[in-house]
């Protein structure tokens, strides 16, 4: 890769911060930014995946303490998502650059739409579950989580349809280097009926596995610039912390909508260039 | 909907896993810093980022299987199988 490490690091810092602030993740902005600077999409993708993996690892201890990750649901959808990611990474290696850029443009547009769509509270609290602790129920794809001082039970629905969508998100993640979280979380909430808080935390868990599956393929294909990867990991972790802190002083809704506009512009530029 | 049996807070149930992941994160940051200049450290960082979630899945699979939840133990093993297939493909290409 021809880009200077400092530039790659600066990009990863800014995009991770913006992604953490807007709830879209950093890779969806980082990978298109690298491609716009002349990096081959198949070389930019593994750098995006490294930022995803680092972010997932950084968030894991906090999510485990909060008890909102549904691990059984996560591994169930990961069978499809990881298989899709491997397929996507294999496809990316043989895609012409122009098509890879267009796939990335479409992905950025989808992320822009996902970030702009509002979500309401779909799973109401139930008094009968007031004594339940937050967490998943053994042997099931159901559980409960605390919303303020109330307990919300939930159970996954339309699991087959959810798995199909997860397979597709895996292909997108593997081929483009983004986490696919902007597709996974809405798939869990809209298709499978999972509360947003649980879906988001479970997505953070699963994207770590998905990105790892695709990274193995890219590493084996000799597409991974490890020095640039080290810069991305350091900068993305720092940027993510700053973004999480900024959430307390900036409006996440305003930031998410701003990011959506930026992603639409990125999508248009990539589409024209491709 | 049938409520689950009483259980410990999540931070207690997953205390060992939390400590492990926190340690891996610190190691990944150190390796990334050294990895800016040294290939071996950079590759070790990549290996750690790939392996950490897989260790988490394996830990969960063993835990579920040992507590009689075999279905999800098998599903966790299936995820690891997909990753193993990816590794075989990577070596093959």
Q: How far apart are the first and last residues' alpha carbons of chain B, in Å?
A: 49 Å
- Please provide the count of β strands of chain A: 3
Instruction: Report the order of strands and helices of chain A.
Output: HHHHHEEEHHHHH
What integer value in Å does the Rg of chain A equal? 18 Å
Radius of gyration of chain B: 17 Å
**Residues in helices of chain B, as a percent range:** over 70%
- Helical content of chain A (DSSP H or I, runs of 4+): over 70%
* Largest sheet descriptor of chain A: 3 strands, antiparallel
Q: What structural class do helix, strand and pairing data of chain A support?
A: mainly alpha
> How many β strands of chain B by DSSP?
0
Strand percent estimate of chain A: 5-15%
Main sheet properties of chain B: none
Element order of chain B: H for helix, E for strand: HHHH
């Amino acid at each position: 890769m021809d880009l200077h490490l400092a530039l790659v690091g600066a990009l990863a810092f800014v995009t991770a911060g913006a992604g953490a602030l807007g709830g879209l993740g950093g890779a969806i902005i980082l990978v298109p930014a690298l491609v716009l600077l002349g990096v081959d999409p198949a070389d930019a993708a593994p750098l995006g995946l490294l930022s995803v993996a680092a972010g997932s690892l950084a968030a894991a201890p906090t999510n485990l303490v909060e008890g909102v990750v549904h691990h059984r649901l996560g591994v169930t959808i990961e069978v499809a998502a990881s298989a899709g990611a491997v397929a996507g990474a294999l496809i990316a290696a043989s895609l012409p650059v122009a098509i890879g850029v267009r796939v990335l443009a479409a992905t950025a547009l989808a992320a822009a739409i996902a970030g702009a769509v509002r979500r309401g509270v779909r799973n109401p609290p139930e008094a009968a579950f007031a004594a339940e602790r937050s967490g998943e129920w053994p042997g099931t794809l159901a559980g409960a989580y605390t919303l303020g001082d109330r307990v919300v039970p939930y159970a996954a629905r339309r699991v087959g349809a959810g798995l199909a969508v997860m397979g597709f998100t895996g292909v997108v993640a593997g081929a483009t280097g983004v986490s696919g979280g902007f597709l996974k979380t809405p798939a869990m909430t809209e298709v499978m009926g999972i509360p947003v808080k649980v879906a988001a935390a479970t997505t953070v868990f699963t994207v770590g596995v998905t990105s790892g599956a695709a990274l193995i393929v890219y590493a084996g294909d000799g597409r991974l610039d490890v020095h640039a990867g080290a810069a991305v990991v350091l900068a993305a972790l720092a940027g993510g912390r700053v973004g999480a802190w900024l959430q307390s002083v900036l409006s996440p809704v305003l930031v998410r909508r701003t990011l959506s506009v930026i992603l639409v512009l990125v999508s248009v530029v990539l589409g024209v260039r491709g | 909907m049938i409520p689950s049996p009483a259980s410990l807070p999540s931070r207690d149930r997953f205390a060992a896993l939390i400590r492990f992941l926190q340690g891996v994160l610190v190691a990944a940051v150190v390796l990334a810093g050294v990895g800016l200049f040294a290939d071996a450290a950079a590759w070790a960082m990549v290996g750690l980022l790939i392996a950490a979630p897989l260790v988490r899945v394996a830990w969960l699979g063993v835990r579920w299987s040992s507590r009689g939840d075999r279905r999800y133990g098998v599903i966790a093993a299936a995820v690891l199988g997909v990753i193993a297939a990816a590794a075989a493909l990577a070596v093959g290409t």
